[in-house]
Write a structure and sequence with these properties.
heterodimer; A: mainly alpha; Rna Polymerase Sigma Factor, Chain: A; Arc Repressor Mutant, subunit A; 2 domains; about 0% strand; disordered N terminus; B: about 280 residues; mainly alpha
Chain lengths: ~230, ~280
C-alpha cells in the first residue's frame, strides 16, 4: 500500500487546487455554534476598530479572553500556518489574520474549543494564502525545484535553515488532506481523535490519511537521501 | 482508538529525524506575539513600562519639535506632518521589502479606549498633547528636560508600580533632534538614528490609537509626529501611516488624508492595510 503513494507527479498535489483548498474548509465545522464558513476575503477581514465601542465590561472580558488565546496559542497557530505552507515571510501577517478572525468570532467559540477553532481558522488562512501564492506564481517565473541530495551533502542536515527548506519542499508536494493530518499528528502531537474532531472527519479517515501521509513523507525523504525505493521500504 | 507512535520516535533515518524536528520546533518570534496583540489592540499591559518609556519619548521628542518650530502650533503640526512624507515613504519602501514587520493596525474589536495603556495615561495626565503644543512655545519647550529627565518623570508616574516591566529601555535622547534643522523632523544629515525597540514602537502607536479612539485626532497627529521623529526608520511606519490617514480624516483634513491614502495604495497595492487606505479614496 505504501508504494502507491510514492507520488512523483506534482499535479495531484498542487496546493492551489481548489479541491484541496476547499477540502479543509468544508470539513472544518464542528466548533462553531453558527456556520463554519470563514470568509477570507481580506477586504472583509478588516474591521474598523475605531468605530466600534462595545460596553466596557464586556470589552475587558473579551480582551482577557483574547489575550489568553494569543498567549496560549500563538506558537501553535504560527507553527500550523508555517507547516501548512505559509511562507516564513507571511507567517506574522497570517498569525494576525487568524487571531483577528478569532476575535471577530469570539462569541461563537465555545469555551474549551478555542484550540480547535484557531486550528480550523489557521488552516483556512493557510489554504487561502496558498491559493494566492499559486496565483502569484502563475504570472511570475516558475521557480525551478531545488535539488537536494543528502547523500552527496549530508552536512545539510546540520543546517537548520536548509532542513526547513527541505521540509517545506516535501510538505508542499503532499496533498493538503494528507499534509494536514501529518502535520497535526507528527508535529502538533495531537491525538487521532482530536484531529478527527477538529477536522470533522471520521477517525478511520484520519488513520488512513496518516498512514498514507507517512508513506508519502518517507518516500520523499528517501528520494532525497538518495536511497532507492526498495532500500527505503525494505 | 490506539494512536500510532509518532514517526519521530520510531524513525532510524537521520534525515527524517531532522525534518520532523524542524517541523516540531518551529516557534513564533516575540515580535509575532507583540504584533498580534497590537493588531488586536491589546498591546497595552504587556509592555506597560515600554509604553511609558515610549510615551516619554513622544513627549520629549515632540517638545523638542515645538522647540525647533518657530511657527504656530497648528502650522507646525501640518508642516511637520508634510515634511515627514519623504522619510515615511522611505521607511515604507524599506518595509515593503522587509517581510514580517507589519501589523494589521487598529483592529481592536474590544474598544481601544478600554485598553488605554498606562503609559498613555501618564502622558495624558501630564499634558494633553495639542495643549502642550499650544502652550509650549519655544520658551517652554526650551525648558524641556533632556531625555533622561523626561523619561524619569513619566516612569515615576503610574507605571512605577509595575515594578519589573520588560526592558525599561533607555530613551533615545532628543538632543540630536533639537539640534537638527529648525524646520521640522528631518534628522540632521549624518545624525545617527537612535535605536528604538519594537515594543516601544508598538507602545507609541498604541498611544496614538488610544488618543484617536478618544476622538482626539489632533492629539493623535501630534503623537505621530513624535513617532516619526523617534523612529525615522520605524518598523511600523506602514501602520503609523495608516493611523495618520485615519487621524487626518478625523481631524477634518480630508484632502490630506485622501492624498496620503492614494500614495499608500500606490505604494502598497497588495497590503492588507491598503484596504483601509482605500476607504478614504471614495467619497
Amino acid at each position: 500500500m505504501t508504494r502507491l503513494f510514492l507520488v512523483e507527479s506534482s499535479e495531484s498535489s498542487d496546493p492551489a487546487s481548489p479541491s484541496h483548498g476547499e477540502g479543509v474548509v468544508e470539513r472544518a465545522a464542528p466548533v462553531l455554534a453558527s456556520g463554519p464558513e470563514l470568509e477570507l476575503d481580506p477586504d472583509l477581514q478588516m474591521p474598523d476598530a475605531l468605530s466600534l465601542a462595545p460596553a466596557a465590561n464586556r470589552s475587558s472580558d473579551r480582551d482577557g479572553r483574547l489575550r489568553s488565546l494569543v498567549d496560549g496559542y500563538v506558537d501553535f497557530v504560527a507553527r500550523v500556518l508555517r507547516n501548512a505552507g505559509t511562507p516564513q515571510a507571511d507567517v506574522d501577517d497570517d498569525v494576525q489574520r487568524t487571531f483577528i478572525i478569532a476575535a471577530r468570532r469570539l462569541d461563537d467559540v465555545r469555551p474549551g474549543s478555542e484550540k480547535s477553532f484557531l486550528l480550523q481558522t489557521a488552516l483556512n488562512v493557510a489554504a487561502h494564502a496558498r491559493r494566492t501564492l499559486a496565483r502569484r506564481r502563475e504570472v511570475g517565473v516558475e521557480q525551478a525545484p531545488e535539488r537536494f541530495d543528502l547523500r552527496a551533502n549530508p552536512e545539510q542536515l546540520a543546517d537548520q535553515k536548509r532542513v526547513r527548506e527541505l521540509l517545506d519542499q516535501i510538505l508542499s508536494r503532499m496533498t493538503d488532506d494528507l499534509r494536514t493530518v501529518f502535520v497535526l499528528y507528527e508535529f502538533e502531537e495531537m491525538s487521532m481523535a482530536e484531529i478527527a474532531e477538529a477536522l470533522g472527519i471520521p477517525a478511520g479517515t484520519v488513520a488512513s490519511r496518516l498512514r498514507r501521509a507517512r508513506a508519502d513523507f518517507r518516500a520523499r525523504v528517501g528520494a532525497i537521501e538518495g536511497l532507492s525505493m526498495g532500500e527505503r521500504l525494505r | 482508538m490506539t494512536d500510532m507512535r509518532r514517526l519521530l520516535e520510531e524513525t532510524e533515518s537521520d534525515a527524517e529525524r531532522a525534518l520532523l524536528q524542524a517541523g516540531r520546533s518551529y516557534r513564533s518570534s516575540r515580535e509575532t506575539r507583540s504584533k498580534t496583540l497590537a493588531a488586536l489592540g491589546l498591546a497595552g499591559s504587556s509592555a506597560i513600562v515600554a509604553v511609558t518609556a515610549a510615551s516619554g519619548t513622544a513627549v520629549s521628542a515632540t517638545a523638542s519639535a515645538s522647540a525647533s518650530a518657530s511657527a504656530s502650533a497648528m502650522t507646525a503640526s501640518t508642516s511637520v506632518a508634510t515634511s515627514v512624507t519623504s522619510t515615511a515613504v522611505g521607511s515604507l519602501a524599506a518595509l515593503a521589502g522587509a517581510s514580517g514587520a507589519k501589523i494589521l493596525v487598529a483592529l481592536s474589536l474590544a474598544g481601544v479606549g478600554t485598553a488605554v495603556p498606562l503609559g498613555y495615561w501618564a502622558l495624558h495626565h501630564r499634558a494633553e498633547p495639542p495643549a502642550l503644543v499650544r502652550q509650549a512655545g519655544p520658551s517652554r519647550a526650551a525648558e524641556a528636560p533632556p531625555a533622561s529627565a523626561a523619561s524619569n518623570a513619566v516612569v515615576s508616574g503610574p507605571a512605577a508600580d509595575q515594578g519589573d516591566g520588560p526592558e525599561p529601555a533607555p530613551l533615545p535622547p532628543p538632543a540630536d533632534d533639537r539640534a537638527a534643522s529648525p524646520s521640522g523632523p528631518r534628522l540632521r544629515a549624518g545624525a545617527r538614528p537612535v535605536p528604538v525597540s519594537l515594543s516601544q514602537e508598538l507602545a507609541a502607536l498604541d498611544a496614538v490609537r488610544a488618543t484617536l479612539a478618544r476622538g482626539n485626532a489632533e492629539g493623535a497627529l501630534f503623537l505621530l509626529e513624535g513617532y516619526d521623529r523617534s523612529c525615522p526608520r520605524g518598523k511600523l511606519a506602514i501602520e503609523a501611516e495608516i493611523l495618520r490617514i485615519d487621524a487626518l480624516a478625523k481631524n477634518g483634513q480630508a484632502r490630506d488624508a485622501r492624498r496620503r491614502a492614494e500614495q499608500f495604495v500606490k505604494q502598497h497595492p497588495t497590503s492588507v492595510l491598503a484596504v483601509r487606505a482605500r476607504t478614504y479614496l471614495g467619497d
